Amino acid sequence: GQQLNQSPQSMFIQEGEDVSMNCTSSSIFNTWLWYKQDPGEGPVLLIALYKAGELTSNGRLTAQFGITRKDSFLNISASIPSDVGIYFCAGFFTGANSKLTFGKGITLSVRP
Amino acid sequence: DVKVTQSSRYLVKRTGEKVFLECVQDMDHENMFWYRQDPGLGLRLIYFSYDVKMKEKGDIPEGYSVSREKKERFSLILESASTNQTSMYLCASSIPGYRANTEAFFGQGTRLTVV
Q1: Of the candidates A48, A100, A104, which has its C-beta nearest B41's C-beta?
Q2: pLDDT per residue over A15-42, tens digit each?
Q3: How far apart are the first and last CA of chain B?
Q4: Peptide bond connecting A8 to the previous residue in cis, omega within 30 degrees of 0
């Protein structure tokens, strides 16, 4: 099945640094979603994007829906230790019986 | 607050057992999904359902079946559990993708170990 491309698999940053993650697809999506998963828990929705070019913020998080509709990025500013976790992007196609397509996720580590 | 609840956080089952994983959502969502999550492989879709009694195979349906008798409940069944089905199982629900402002919400996950 199709997957979105997220790389690298792991990122290591220093507390206080900004970090940016990218997600790309060979197909167009109408909705992009960004999730964070803490160890042993289910993914939690961080930001949802519905229009090409849309830029949305949620606290220190900013995400953008690419104008080609084939990519999205998530930026975390001034990272803190509790930002550690796995960050997934997901896309929805328009249409009946549409399903979420996920990236493999990026594991973020933050050094104090 | 939106809620997707999975019946167990941790399960240990024996090889060959029939295993039921239950998921309930209280958001009146049409779509429900079952994923499994394994290190390095991300989230892989097992089955999804877009309406009561409707189901479609995802990317890795072999060894699994599902049941959706009521809108709020979606069950994943392992017909005869095997050790390679040891994994984290995640349930999610959403409104249909053709409607505006689609979002999907996850349960807390069930960590299944088959011994």
Answers
A1: A104
A2: 999 999 999 998 888 889 999 999 889 9
A3: 37
A4: yes
